[in-house]
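[retry 2/3] Peptidase metallopeptidase domain-containing protein: previous attempt timed out, resubmitting with same input.
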Amino acid sequence: MAPKFSYLLATFLLLLFSIQLFIAQSEGHEGKTLKFLQSLKEIQKGQNVVGLNEVKKHLMKFGYYPSDDTNNLNDDFDNLLESALKTYQKFYKLKVTGSLDSATIKNMMIPRCGVPDVTNLTSSSKPTSNSHHKSKMFHMVSHYDFPKGMPRWPSSKYKLTYTFRSGVQNPNEADMRSACSRAFQRWASVSQFTFQEAPTGSKADIVIGFYRRDHGDGLAFDGRLGTVLAHAFYPQDGRFHFDADEDWSNNPNMNQFDLESVAAHEIGHLLGLAHSQDSNAIMYSIIPIGTIKRKLTQDDIDGIHALYPN
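[retry 2/3] Peptidase metallopeptidase domain-containing protein: success.
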C-alpha cells in the first residue's frame, strides 16, 4: 500500500504543480503589468512614485512621450507625462484627466498593434489633430490618418508581391498563409492594388513572418499575452511581423488571437495608413483577445481612397 500511496501523492503533487505553472503562464506579462499599473492608479502630477518611468516608456513606444527626452524617463509625474496622458486620452476618446485613471489603465492594457499612434514626436513638437493630413472632403466624417510625410507606393507598384520568411519556426504557417491571402483580398477589393504570393525564398515587395522579442528591427515584441501583437512598416519598406509567442488561430477561442483580423490591420500600414480613431475600423490600434474583426469599414475605405485617389 505504501508504494501505491507514494505514487498517488507524487502524481497529485505533479498535477498541482502543472496547474500552478499553467496559471502563471496564462497571466504572463499581461497579469504582471496590469497589477503594476493598478498600483499607480490616481497618481497625480507632482508626485514621485516608483514605476512611473515604465509608464513613460510605454507611452514613448506608442508615440505619446517625446522620443528624444530619455533624460526624463524617471519616476516624476511631470508636465510631459501629464501632456502625454492627455494626448493618449484624446486619441482614444477617454475622459481627458491627465492622470492614470481606471479607464486609461484599462485601455493601455488591451493588446494592440506595435506601430506608434503618433509619429516623430519630440520635446520641441506638439502632437496635432489627425485631421491635419486628411483630404478636406472627408474631414467631417472620418477618423483615419496617415503618418508624417504620407509615404505611399508609386502607381508603378500597385501590383505588389509578398512572401513568407520567419525568424523562428512557425507552426501556424498554413494558417498564416490563408489568413494573409484573405486579408490582402479585402484591401484589393476596395483599392487599385493587387497582391500575388511570390515563391518562398524569392524577392518580394512585402515579407511576412513570425518573430520573438528583440528581432533586430527596433520594435521588440513582449512575449505571450504582452501588449504588442504585431507590427508592419509604412511604404515602401514591406516588413510585416507577428509575435510568435502569442497563440494564433484562424478560428480563435477566448484565449487566442485571430490571424486574419491582425493581418488586415497590418496590411493597412503596409499600404500607408496610420491608426484610426474609429473603434470599429480595421485600422483602430487595439483588439481584445478572442476578437474577430475582419471587415473593412467605410473609414478604412475612405482612408485608402484618400491616399490613393482613383
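[retry 2/3] Peptidase metallopeptidase domain-containing protein: Strands lie at 112-113, 159-164, 194-197, 206-211, 228-232, 239-243, 248-249, 257-258.
[retry 2/3] clearing retry counter.
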